[in-house]
Amino acid sequence: MLPGSTRDITKHKQTEEAERQRTEQFETLLNEAPFCVYMVDGDFRIRQVNPTAQLVFGNIPDLIGRDFDEVIHVLWPQAYADEIVAIFHHTLETGEPYIVAERVEERRDRGVREFYEWQIHRIPLPEGGYGVVCYFRDISAHVQAREAIAESEERFRTLTNNMSQFAWMADATGWISWYNRRWFEYTGATLDEMQGWGWEKVHHPDHVDRVVQKWRRAQETGEPWEDTFPLRGKDGIYRWFLSRALPIRDADGQIIRWFGTNTDVTDQRAAEASLRDKQQLVQAAKLASIGELASGMAHELNNPLNNIGLFVGNVLHQLEEGHIDPPRMRYNLQTTLEQVNKASQFIPSLIP
Q1: Are 169 and 258 in contact (CB under 8 A)?
Q2: Is it true that 30-143 and 278-350 share their CATH fold?
Q3: pLDDT tens-digit series, residues 161-183
Q4: At what angle do helices 266-321 and 326-344 cross, to 10 degrees?
Q5: Which residues contact 118 (CB under 8 A, 6 or more apart)?
């Protein structure tokens, strides 16, 4: 450049400013990311770690710039740490990404099991060469919740499969998607045959329309459902069941599913019918006994009442004719009194 001349560096300054803005944007995105991010450079040194990932790494001093192999062996057992280091080397050398949907290991530094999903990719570095960026997320809480749900479901299935009743679940529309083992043992059917509205096949044809209508009405109103009907077993014999279903609601009160049971009441109904028959026989026997007693009383009262009528008639006849015979009058009155006393002996038995 000649003395006294100037050089326009506007374009150079603009390029520097653009690069600075990109760097700031990158740093902002990295630091604000809801997942963990860190980068390893070509010399296998940890170059960048965002705040979210820093929490996972823990209290490792001077993390930035430390050897990645060394750090990983602080965090994880020997075998798993060796595996991770080998994977990073492979991606750095080949550019082939690596993705892990879910991995569980026990942290060496913390002594606890942790679950992670992670993936790594090779990226070019500003100064040339390549590095490896790792994106990961701690999914321990998610996995533990899933395992707790699975354990709860297993306990539920164990309980329902060993109860004496049939049990089943339906969605909010009444579509049944699950039965316990007792149901299949009784009907001899498969889930494919019974799911949805397939249960109608084992209902008695004289009752199925009524049951369906009542079941649909419960879904419309959201009220608990109850009905009694016969179900056909795998032996072709119908037995009577008392069925109940309760709606299960979410936090907003919306029905999300139904839980139902069927209880065999065949023997109970037979016992009740037998009891009714016995009560009817006892009642009939009582009525028959009362009839026999009344007939006997009528027979016992018939003679004294006839005699009373005869002797009273004789007395009245004597009075009307004016032919009073005192001894005969005395006899008739005394006989009448005896017949009245005899008849009165039966009166208390007629009073309850």
Answers
A1: yes
A2: no
A3: 878 899 999 999 999 999 999 99
A4: 170
A5: 99, 100, 103, 134, 135, 136, 137
Q: Which two three-digit tokens encode residue 273?
A: 């019918």
* Number of C-beta neighbours around residue 151 at 10 A: 10
Dihedral of CA atoms 94, 100, 104, 105 in degrees, nearest 10, equals 10
Annotated domain spans of the chain: 30-143, 164-264, 278-350
Rounded CA gap, 240 and 347, in Å?
Answer: 52
Question: How far is 120 from 218, CA to CA, in rounded Å?
Answer: 53
DSSP structure class, residue 198? G
Confidence of residue 33 (pLDDT cuts 50, 70, 90): low
Give the residue, 271 or 335, on which the prediction is more confident: 271
Residue 192 CB neighbours (<10 A): 8
Answer yes or no: is pLDDT of 231 > 90. Answer: yes
Is there a contact between 281 and 287 (Cβ–Cβ < 8 Å)? no
Judge: domain 30-143, CATH 3.40.50.80.
no
Phi-psi region of 267 (alpha: psi -120 to 50; beta: other; left: phi over 0): alpha
pTM greater than 0.85 (yes/no): no
Specify burial of residue 38 (Cβ count, 10 A radius: 0-12, 13-18, 19+): buried
Question: In this structure, what are the phi and psi dihedrals at residue 44, rounded to the nearest 5 degrees?
Answer: 65, 35
CATH fold of 164-264 reads Beta-Lactamase (3.30.450)
* Distance separating the N- and C-terminal Cα atoms of the chain: 142
CATH no. of 278-350: 1.10.287.130
Say which residues have a Cβ less than 8 Å from residue 52's Cβ, sequence separation at least 6: 33, 34, 35, 36, 37
